[in-house]
Amino acid sequence: MKVALFVPCYIDQFYPQVGVATLQLLEKLGVQAHFPAQQTCCGQPLANSGCERDALPIYKHFVNTFQDYDYVVAPSGSCVYHVRKHFDKLDQTAEVQHVRGAAYDLIDFISTVLKVDALPGAFPHKVGLHLSCHGQRGLHQANESEMTPVRDGQLSRLLRSLDGIELTQLNRNDECCGFGGTFCVSEAGISARMGQDRVADHVRNGTQVLTGSDMSCLMHLEGIVRRAKMPIKVMHAAEILNGVLASV
Amino acid sequence: MSHAIRADKFLLDADRTTWHDETLWFVREKRDRAVYAVPEFQELRELASQIKNHTLSRLDLYLQEFEAAAQANGVHVHWAADAAEHNAIILDIIKKQGATRVVKSKSMLTEECHLNPYLIQHGVEVVDTDLGERIIQFRDEAPSHIVLPAIHLKKEDVGDTFHTHLGTAKGESDPQRLTEAARQHLRSKFVAGEVAISGVNFAIAETGAVVVCTNEGNADLGVNLARVHIAAMGIEKIIPRLTDLGVFTRLLARSATGQPVTTYTSHFAKPAPDKEMHIVIVDNGRTQQLGRPDFRASLKCIRCGACMNTCPVYRRSGGHSYDFTVPGPIGAILSPNIDMKKHASLPFASTLCGSCTDVCPVKIDIHTQLYKWRQVLGEANEIPASKKWGMKFMGRVLASTRVYGLGGQFARRALRLLPHGLTHAPSFNAWAVARELPEAPKQSFREWYAKQPQPAPQPQSQVPA
Predict the structure, then answer these.
(1) Using only C-alpha atoms, what is the Rg of chain B?
(2) Using the 8-state DSSP alphabet, how is residue B167 labeled?
(3) Are strands B264-268 and B209-214 parallel, antiparallel or unpaired?
(4) Cα nearest neighbour of A234 on chain B
(5) What letter would DSSP give residue A163?
(6) Does the beta carbon of A47 lie under 8 angstroms from any beta carbon of chain B?
(7) A6 in the Ramachandran plot: left (φ > 0), alpha (ψ -120 to 50) or beta?
(8) Helix (H, G, I), strand (E, B) or coil at B437
(9) Intervals of chain B under pLDDT 50
(10) Nearest to B387 among A49, A86, A244 (CB)
(11) In this predicted model, what pLDDT tens digit does every residue of B223-240 receive, in sequence order?
(12) Do A20 and B462 lie within an 8 Å CB cutoff?
């Protein structure tokens, strides 16, 4: 199994520790992932801004970079959703179709490809899970509250398998955090207000560690937490799971 | 003025924003409880979606079938290409009656056509009889929600309005006393009404009847008391058969307010003896949308408002920030069809979270259409120049490994070296108005990886202290 690690641009530049944790976590689960050095970005920021045409060279670069791998794994559901859903604008060559199907969010990869849904180890903290919309509703990684509530989420199942962990019960389980890519700048007021409300739900219900599987939402929420100097630690789920596995 | 600027005005009153958000979220939760209680809800959604898809694919045939059936029932059928024709037809009917007093039950189509000001300008008294509509009519405002038109107002606001217009006690905010005042006021208007105008929730091709759903019974009171009933409907209100109706009535009220069914679901098929019934069938841009393959599914909408109640952006920006008859996510895909330039910012008033799509009872892919509208607007040069050129620049950077790597190093170094006041200046960094920027690490992931012994790095603990 040839697995490539895709480290989205903002994680590469601002959260290298999330890339490291992802790489190490995969290794502990028996997967030797390779990081193709020529990778850049999936092009989502441009496309979501209405500039899909300007993003096409980025899409092509992405396909060229990853076409020789069986799986492309990234710690960001939103970028994976973009590759799967919006690369339909390219000519659908065999390479393009392969890369679209090979792209996996890290947690989805662990759950559905590696078929791991429990991990040994302890994380004795009160953990609040932020369900990111693109992973949850776009890639169906967790149940949508709009639907009949029957299905469990991949990440909550993994986290609940840890010893001593307590998952926060939120008033609004899966409300959007308000990041939305360039939305956070073009509609900065609403974006900030949504983020503040989201963090407040966690604070009210006792979250100590705020986590999720999409670093972009967490970057936005962390910015709000740090501005307000709130006693919450924001960590990508890969950091928690990797740390836990190292300690057993 | 863009949606963001109007939303910022709404956000200035933080407490009111909280209240608006919580009130609509309460409705969303009611909807969830009602939906979870129906095990076949997803099958109902699918069925409704298929019926609507089928109907839109044969819309001309079903409209003609409807017209013939309605005429056979003794109903006068009129066709209006646009808002101006719609208004002129209705005024003509009223004039021929020699009438001056009209009672109207809630209709977003007549709002869309700006019927009220047109009739008033021509000397006709128009009274909106839905309580919420009456409140905003007193205040000379537009509805801020399609099901809950006065949801932006608190009971104290209504008290002030009724004090001015109905003479209730100053400072009165008791909902029961205010409602009673409105009831007495509206009763006199119902009794005096000569012509009743209603909207249409569903029009049944097979029978030629129209169905109107209300919770206050005001459409029924108006229609049954007046001599003439005028029902105004968009062409997309058609459903093929009477047996299809149950699918939609089960979905409509649950999705809208969490009720199993609306209090009144009234069928109007033919005029009573010595009375008249008219139906005005309106296009007003709908066939244009039907001709846009990416956006035609927006015509499936049954106007339940569930996408507004669930939308985290709508709940925090209020309906008026959309500046369109139908606000919220569905409005943001309907409005650029009418005026792309004026409504260019609306498809961007979304995080594309997808909740609107999941909540939609007829499965309109709302957030996908928002994304597609953005591309149409980008191609049509209707996005801000700063964004356009910024994205072109980013495209160049991100298509090249070398330029991207150098750019990243430069940006991180700048963030580390420049003073906080400069990197976080709200005047040119919208992110930093309410958020700290991420701390710029000295090393990017790719720089770290390049230094690792290949092929694989050694595990190391990342547990927080």
Answers:
(1) 26
(2) -
(3) antiparallel
(4) B464
(5) B
(6) yes
(7) beta
(8) coil
(9) 457-465
(10) A49
(11) 999 999 999 999 999 999
(12) yes
8 A C-beta contact, residue B93 and residue B99:
no
CA B372 and chain centroid, separation: 18
- Per-residue pLDDT of chain A (248 residues), as tens digits, is 999 999 999 999 999 999 999 999 999 999 999 999 999 999 999 999 999 999 999 999 999 999 999 999 999 999 999 999 999 999 999 999 999 999 999 999 999 999 999 999 999 999 999 999 999 999 989 888 999 766 679 999 999 999 999 999 999 999 999 999 999 999 999 999 999 999 999 999 999 999 999 999 999 999 999 999 999 999 999 999 999 997 54
| pLDDT for res B33 | 96
Q: Which residues of A122-150 are buried (b: 16+ CB within 10 A; e: fewer)?
A: ebebebbbbbbbbbbbbbebbbbbbbbee
Residue A191's φ and ψ, nearest 5 degrees, are -60, -45
| Binary contact (B445, A137; C-beta < 8 A) | no
Asked if B411's CB is within 8 angstroms of A51's CB, the reply is no
Six-digit token string for B395: 């495209």
As for the ipTM of the complex, it is 0.96
* C-beta atoms surrounding B419 within 10 Å: 8
Residue A70 buriedness (CB in 10 A; 0-12 / 13-18 / 19+): exposed
Provide the 10 A C-beta neighbour count for residue A105. 29
Which pair of tokens denotes residue B101? 């007093």
Of B36, B377, B378, the CB nearest to A148: B36
Closest among B393, B399, B395, B406 to B446, alpha carbons compared? B406
Q: What is the mean pLDDT of chain A?
A: 95
Residue type, A221: L
When CB atoms are compared, the residue of A13, A27, A47 closest to B412 is: A13
Task: Name the one residue in this structure whose structure tokens are 């609040």.
Answer: A128
Token representation of residue B358: 């999941």
Nearest chain B Cα distance for residue A111, angstroms: 21
Q: How far apart (Å, rounded) are the C-alpha atoms in residues A158 and B251?
A: 36
